[in-house]
Amino acid sequence: MDDFNLNMNLGDGVQKVGKNGRCLRPFYYRLPEKKNNPKLRNFRLGEIIQGRILTIEDVGIGEVRLPNGVFKCNLHPGLLPNDELFFRIAEVEPSLVLKVYSVQTKTNRIKRKKEDIIRILDLPDNELYQHTAELFLTFKTMIYKDDLIKFYKFYGKLSDIDNYDAESCSRALFWMAESGLHFEYDIFEVAYGYFNTLKYIDSIMGDFLHLNPKLLPDAVNKLLSNFRSGFDSDNTEVKFDFFSQYTDKEVFSLSKFVSKLSVSILSARMQQLPNKIDAFIQNMHIWNNICVGSDSAYHWSFPLKLDNKVKIVTLVIKSQFKISEKEKSSNSVKDIDIGEVLKMLIGISSEELRESVESDNSLNMFVNTMAKFINDIGLTLMAVMYFDGELRTVESPYGAAISANKSISFVI
Length: 412
Known about the structure:
- This protein is of the alpha+beta class.
- It has twelve helices and 14 strands.
- A seven-stranded mixed barrel has the order 1-2-5-4-3-6-7.
- A hairpin with a 4-residue loop joins strand 6 (84-91) and strand 7.
- The chain is elongated, with a radius of gyration of 27 Å.
């Protein structure tokens, strides 16, 4: 439904298309000549042109304005008057063939809805396209139909597809594409594991930190109490390093703690909680190290008091420099720890940041304050994510859109 054939004969006004004047594909034909009708320009193969739907006269029939004039055409049934989109010239001879190419994320400075993106680009209205369109609306200024189709083709080739969450798949594929990565299943599994657990990490951490003390050894209870302080509702400290993998042997981190717990200490049922936390930490670190050296955004999660309740928030950060150059502990990319980098860079302003959280721990206040601190150290805060019934994304006051649109190169 995305091919448009245009046959024009200015001398005759309208030329029939296809057998008996009919065509199976949507087509354009020239309106009869008028006195001041603009001249037909020379189209070029591969050229991108913009079109606006003017009127819908009947089901699937309407008028569209192209750069060289107005044409009556058969349209896919989802298009409405005032829809504006871009077409690519696929053929010039013997007839002009236009393919739906892309749509801007904003119209008249107002962000479109994901339902409009799916409708205008004539995509199936399913869960994967809905989540993918929402991501593109947040982080892109232009949405290309082929990009969304490539996501869907890859998603459809996953084995045991029913075991995958469509939203988490969308996030993993989107950020893999932004990293310029060819598809590799191992990398996808790491990205998917991290983004999928973001939806459950609050409840997992809550259940783990409040395990029944009577069922735990004294040594485990003592260590667990140290980490509970990070989730204390009275704690306004911004603990960037809560999920860090410390290289300092003297520091016993949560990461080391959960990795050392075993079934010899906990029951098999209780063991599932630290295992999930350990996998979440490992996947986050591996994913961020994959992003080192690329233009993709880093994702860093940590607990924060918001609206008088502790939640795990995730910063989506764009680096204007190689993040490894800011890592003080090692020059090896294997040791990159975004939490440690943020703790080091924002450490000089940590008291000011804490005072801001204490005075107003609302999400909007945190996003505005955090954006300033992040930007001051040469990074760009694009958005903050948190879970509240669903995974929500709040854009930075500086905007979240990635300036460049990259081509996607998944192996399908």
